[in-house]
C-alpha cells in the first residue's frame, strides 16, 4: 500500500491531483466550518465587493461572502457528485458483471440494450430523469447515477471478460483452487483497479453534470450555496461584478481537473508496465 | 465488408430506436402531466376533459397508445405539440437543421485545432510543446460548456464587444452576420472535444511511432516528414474516426446547453422548452431524433473506417 502511494505521489499528475482532491474533500467534509462568514447572511451595504479586505473573494449581489459560499457549497456539490458516481458505478458493475457471467444470448441482449440507452446523450438522459422526478438535489443525484450506469456497465463487463481469460486465472483453475478463491483473490483485485480509475475520472464529469443541471434550474434550488447555481445566478450581475461569476467557475474547473489528474495518476500507479 | 454485416448494423439501429422509444414513452407516461388539462386549461369542466381524453385516446391501454404513437412516427407523423398546437415533426426537423449546422461547424473547428495539436505533442514528446498541449487539454476537459459560454460572453462579447453575446441569424439571410453569431457557440461546444481528441491523437501517434515498421522506414533512410505523413499519420488517425463519432453523443449534449445560453433555435433549445412545459409529444420526438442522429453518425463512421482501412473485415 505504501509502495502504491509512493508510486502515485511520484508522478506529477498523481501528486497534484491528490493535493487538489484532498483539499476539496476536506472542504466537503468540514462544510462551512472554516467559512469566515455565514454563507447565507446578506449585507445590503456590502454588495458587489471586489476581492480583498474583509471579504477575501468579494461578495455577491446580496452581499453574501463568496468564499464562505464556495466552502459550504463544496458539501452539496462534491458529496453529491461522489455519491452519484459511486451509485452509478455500483449499478453499472452489477449489470456488467451479470452480463459477462451470463454470457451468450443474454450477454448480447443486455449489451445491445445498454448500447441503445447510450445513444441518448447523458445530459439529456439526466434531464429526462430530473423532469420525471422533479427538480432538486436528491433527484439530480439519481439522474446522474442513471446517466452513468450504461457506460460503467460496459466497462465492467469488458474488464471482467479480459480478466477471466488471463493466464493467472487459468493457472488458478489448473491448481485446483476453489471458485471463491479465484473470484476474490485472483479476479477481484484486477477488476477493481481499472474501475476505480474510471470512477475517479467520472467524478469530475459528475461535478460538471451536477453544476450543469443546477445551472439549467433543475438541480439545487436557490438560495442553496451550490457552485453551478452560483454561476447561473451570477450571469445577471456580471456587469456589476465579474468576480461573482469567476470564482465559482474557477472552483468547478479546479475540482474537475483535480479528479482527472488523480484518475490519470492512479492509472499509472496501478499499471507500472505501461 | 459483407452485406450481412451492413444488414446487421441496420437491424441494430432499429433495435436501438425501439429501446429508446420504449424508454422515452415510459418516462413520459409517468410524467405528472395531463395532456387534456394542458390543452383546455385548468378551468375546463370534468366532462369536457373526459371527452377530450376519449377523443385523444388517452383512456386506451398504454400499449395501444404506444403502438399508435410509434405507428405515426413510422409514417412521419410525430403528433402535435401540446403547447403550440403545431405539428411536431416539421418544427423539430427544421430545429435539427440549425443544430446540425452548429455541430458540423464545431466538428470542423475541433479537427482543425485538435489534429495539429495532437500531432505536434506526439512529435515533440516530453518537450515544452507536449507539456503545453497536455496542460491545456487538462483545463479544456474540466470546463463545462455553461462555464466557458458564460466566461466567453463576459470577456469577448461584453468587455471587448467584438462578437454578439447571443442570438441567431440564418446564414441564408445574412452570411457575415450569421457567422459572427456562430463564432462563440462553436468555440464553446468544441473546447472539451478539442482537449479530448488532441489527447487521443497524441497517444495513438506515439504508439504508432514506436512500431517496427516505422523503425524500418527510418533504417531505409526515408525522410522524417515522409515517415510521419505517409506511414505514421495514416495509421494513427484512423482510430480517431471512431473516437470522434462516439464524441458526437457528447456534442449533442453540449449543443443543448449552448443553444440555451446563446438563444439558438435548435433542437436542444426546443427540447429544454418542452421538458420545462411537459410538452410530451415534443419530448418523445426530440429524444428519438437525437438518438437516431447519434446512431446514423456512428454507422457512417464504421463504414468510413472500413472503407479507409482495408484490413478491417467486419462480418
Blueprint of the fold:
The complex is a heterodimer of chains A (274) and B (315).
Chain A: H1 2-10, H2 12-30, H3 66-102, H4 104-117, H5 122-133, H6 137-165, H7 167-175, H8 179-215, H9 227-234, H10 243-270
Helix pairs in contact in A: 1-10, 2-3, 2-10, 3-4, 3-6, 3-8, 4-6, 5-6, 6-8, 7-8, 8-9, 8-10, 9-10
Chain B: H1 3-30, H2 35-40, H3 46-56, H4 62-74, H5 88-123, H6 128-141, H7 145-159, H8 175-209, H9 212-220, H10 224-261, H11 267-277, H12 280-308
Helix pairs in contact in B: 1-12, 5-6, 5-8, 5-10, 5-12, 6-8, 7-8, 7-10, 8-10, 9-10, 10-11, 10-12, 11-12
- What's the total helix number of chain A? 10
Total number of helical segments of chain B?
A: 12
3D shape of chain B: globular
Q: Summarize the biggest pleated sheet of chain A.
A: none
Low-confidence runs of chain A: none
Oligomer status: heterodimer
Assigned CATH superfamily of chain A: MetI-like
Distance from N terminus to C terminus of chain A (CA atoms, Å) equals: 20 Å
Describe the structure.
The complex is a heterodimer of chains A (274) and B (315). With 274 residues, chain A is an all-alpha fold. Chain A is 74% helix and 0% strand. Chain A has one domain (2-270): MetI-like (MetI-like fold, Orthogonal Bundle). Chain A has helices at 2-10, 12-30, 66-102, 104-117, 122-133, 137-165, 167-175, 179-215, 227-234, 243-270. In chain A, helix 2 packs across helix 3, helix 5 packs across helix 6 and helix 6 (137-165) runs antiparallel to helix 8 (179-215). Chain A is elongated. Chain A starts with a helix and ends with a helix. The mean pLDDT of chain A is 83. With 315 residues, chain B is mainly alpha-helical. Chain B is 78% helix and 0% strand. Chain B has twelve helices and no strands. Chain B has helices at residues 3-30, 35-40, 46-56, 62-74, 88-123, 128-141, 145-159, 175-209, 212-220, 224-261, 267-277, 280-308. The model of chain B has no long low-confidence stretch (mean pLDDT 85). The chains are: A mainly alpha (274), B mainly alpha (315). The interface between A and B is large, with 42 and 44 residues.
Amino acid at each position: 500500500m505504501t509502495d502504491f502511494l509512493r508510486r502515485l505521489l511520484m508522478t506529477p499528475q498523481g501528486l497534484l491531483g491528490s493535493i487538489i482532491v484532498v483539499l476539496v474533500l476536506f472542504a466537503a467534509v468540514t462544510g462551512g466550518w472554516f467559512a469566515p462568514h455565514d454563507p447565507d447572511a446578506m449585507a445590503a451595504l456590502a454588495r458587489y465587493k471586489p476581492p480583498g479586505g474583509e471579504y477575501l473573494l468579494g461578495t455577491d449581489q446580496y452581499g453574501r461572502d463568496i468564499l464562505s459560499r464556495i466552502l459550504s457549497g463544496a458539501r452539496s456539490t462534491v458529496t453529491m457528485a461522489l455519491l452519484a458516481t459511486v451509485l452509478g458505478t455500483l449499478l453499472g458493475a452489477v449489470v456488467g458483471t451479470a452480463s459477462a457471467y451470463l454470457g451468450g444470448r443474454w450477454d448480447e441482449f443486455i449489451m445491445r440494450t445498454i448500447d441503445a440507452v447510450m445513444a441518448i446523450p447523458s445530459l439529456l438522459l439526466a434531464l429526462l430523469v430530473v423532469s420525471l422526478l422533479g427538480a432538486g438535489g436528491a433527484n439530480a443525484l439519481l439522474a446522474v447515477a442513471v446517466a452513468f450506469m450504461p457506460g460503467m456497465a460496459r466497462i465492467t463487463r469488458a474488464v471482467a471478460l479480459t480478466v477471466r481469460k488471463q493466464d493467472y486465472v487459468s493457472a488458478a483453475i489448473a491448481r485446483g483452487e476453489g471458485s471463491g478463491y479465484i473470484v476474490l483473490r485472483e479476479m477481484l483485485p484486477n477488476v477493481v483497479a481499472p474501475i476505480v480509475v474510471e470512477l475517479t475520472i467520472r467524478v469530475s464529469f459528475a461535478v460538471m453534470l451536477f453544476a450543469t443541471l443546477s445551472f439549467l434550474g433543475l438541480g439545487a434550488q436557490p438560495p442553496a450555496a451550490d457552485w453551478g447555481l452560483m454561476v447561473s445566478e451570477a450571469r445577471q450581475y456580471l456587469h456589476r461584478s465579474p468576480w461573482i461569476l469567476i470564482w465559482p467557475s474557477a472552483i468547478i474547473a479546479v475540482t474537475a481537473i483535480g479528479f482527472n489528474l488523480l484518475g490519470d495518476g492512479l492509472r499509472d500507479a496501478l499499471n507500472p508496465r505501461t | 465488408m459483407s452485406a450481412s454485416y451492413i444488414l446487421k448494423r441496420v437491424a441494430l439501429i432499429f433495435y436501438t430506436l425501439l429501446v429508446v422509444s420504449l424508454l422515452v414513452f415510459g418516462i413520459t407516461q409517468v410524467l405528472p402531466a395531463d395532456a387534456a388539462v394542458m390543452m383546455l386549461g385548468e378551468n375546463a369542466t370534468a366532462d369536457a376533459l373526459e371527452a377530450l381524453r376519449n377523443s385523444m385516446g388517452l383512456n386506451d391501454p398504454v400499449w395501444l397508445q404506444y403502438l399508435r404513437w410509434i405507428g405515426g412516427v413510422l409514417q412521419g407523423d410525430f403528433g402535435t405539440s401540446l403547447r403550440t398546437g403545431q405539428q411536431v415533426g416539421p418544427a423539430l426537423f427544421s430545429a435539427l437543421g440549425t443544430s446540425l449546422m452548429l455541430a458540423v461547424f464545431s466538428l470542423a473547428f475541433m479537427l482543425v485545432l485538435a489534429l495539429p495539436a495532437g500531432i505536434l505533442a506526439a512529435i515533440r514528446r516530453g518537450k515544452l510543446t507536449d507539456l503545453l498541449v497536455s496542460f491545456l487539454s487538462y483545463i479544456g476537459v474540466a470546463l463545462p460548456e455553461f462555464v466557458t459560454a458564460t466566461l466567453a460572453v463576459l470577456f469577448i462579447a461584453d468587455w471587448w464587444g467584438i462578437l454578439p453575446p447571443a442570438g441567431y441569424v440564418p446564414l441564408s439571410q445574412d452570411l457575415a452576420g450569421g457567422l459572427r453569431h456562430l463564432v462563440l457557440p462553436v468555440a464553446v461546444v468544441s473546447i472539451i472535444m478539442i482537449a479530448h481528441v488532441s489527447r487521443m491523437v497524441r497517444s495513438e501517434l506515439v504508439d504508432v511511432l514506436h512500431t517496427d515498421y516505422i523503425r524500418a522506414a527510418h533504417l531505409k533512410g526515408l525522410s522524417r516528414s515522409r515517415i510521419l505523413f505517409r506511414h505514421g499519420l495514416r495509421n494513427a488517425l484512423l482510430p480517431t474516426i471512431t473516437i470522434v463519432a462516439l464524441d458526437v453523443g457528447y456534442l449533442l449534449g453540449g449543443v443543448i446547453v449552448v443553444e440555451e445560453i446563446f438563444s439558438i433555435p435548435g433542437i436542444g433549445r426546443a427540447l429544454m422548452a418542452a421538458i420545462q412545459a411537459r410538452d410530451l409529444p415534443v419530448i418523445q420526438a426530440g429524444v428519438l431524433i437525437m438518438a437516431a442522429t447519434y446512431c446514423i453518425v456512428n454507422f457512417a463512421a464504421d463504414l468510413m473506417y472500413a472503407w479507409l482501412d482495408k484490413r478491417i473485415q467486419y462480418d
